[in-house]
Amino acid sequence: MAETGADTIKIKRVLTFLDETRVADGRDTVPPLRKAAAVAIVDNPFAGRFVQDLSPLTRASEAIGREICAIAVRLLAPDQAVSYGKAAVIGINGEQEHGNAMLTTVFGNVMREAIGGGKAWISSMTKRAAPGAAIDIPLAHKDALYVRSHYDGMTLTLPDAPQPNEIAIIAVYATRSRPNQRVGGLSAAEIKGQDGLT
Fold it and tell me: InterPro entries given for it (predicted)?
């Protein structure tokens, strides 16, 4: 539960997803690539009306993020997450900006804490949609955005969510690079970890 001033945002549902790639393009993926996502479905207190100050959503995102990030990380155990991404799907009575308000640095810092740190900016995607819509969540290396081998994504379809007055908040983690990556650039072994880029 997250406090939003006079309002309280409760997590109504939690959806989880685990995708493990063992073979890609006819080649064994060693170790397997594991991607995990946890989704919180919450009521949108601002659905159907324009509100200038969206900071209550940002504040609420911290507690919501702590819960779903912990769930996603547990799905990967014992493997360690090395890349991440975030997203929100906003029910059609809400605004895209409502989802963006819940994916700010407040939520990003919780994502980093859940895996013991991360220097890089976290890729994200938001959109308004009806229940059952698919969303592609972009992934990038947690410590260096310029590591091309970790540019990836996870596609989720949310059953019966979000309803028109709901928001789906999504945290995604992955354990390694894309299978068979070979486009060059900065490697994970070369990360300096100082500026979030290299």
Answer: AA_synth_put, BB2672
